[in-house]
From TrEMBL:
PROSITE patterns membership: PROKAR_LIPOPROTEIN
SUPFAM superfamilies xref list: Quinoprotein alcohol dehydrogenase-like (SSF50998)
Pfam families given in the database record: WD40
UniProt source species: Takifugu flavidus
Name assigned to this protein: WD repeat-containing protein 27
Domain of life: Eukaryota
Length: 103
């Protein structure tokens, strides 16, 4: 396989102008998540350029995103230090005790 230094796919819609917002790829290789300064996080299907879910209702910019290494659960972190856990395939916010099931 030849590698070329060119862009093969763009994932857009998230805003990143002032704060460094992270991006993450799930261990299963199916999802890409990004933080955003528009107080949302975005979950993309790795095979397309469109987003699957726009995770909303954050009170501050979403600066950090990360996937659990053994599950597809997505953790988001906002500028005010709040953490939330999501199921990326559905975009559903998981209850606070869901993190105990991930251990």
């Amino acid at each position: 396989m030849q590698r070329h230094g060119r862009c093969t796919r763009r994932y857009e819609n998230h805003v990143n102008r002032v704060h460094p917002c992270s991006a993450a790829i799930s261990a299963c290789g199916r999802f890409i998540a990004t933080g955003s300064e528009d107080n949302c996080a975005y979950v993309y299907d790795i095979r397309s350029s469109g987003y699957l879910h726009k995770l909303q209702n954050f009170s501050n910019p979403v600066l950090s995103v990360g996937f659990h290494p053994a599950t597809t659960q997505l953790m988001t972190g906002t500028l005010d230090g709040k953490l939330r856990l999501f199921q990326p395939s559905s975009g559903a916010l998981l209850p606070r005790d869901a993190s105990a099931a991930a251990h």
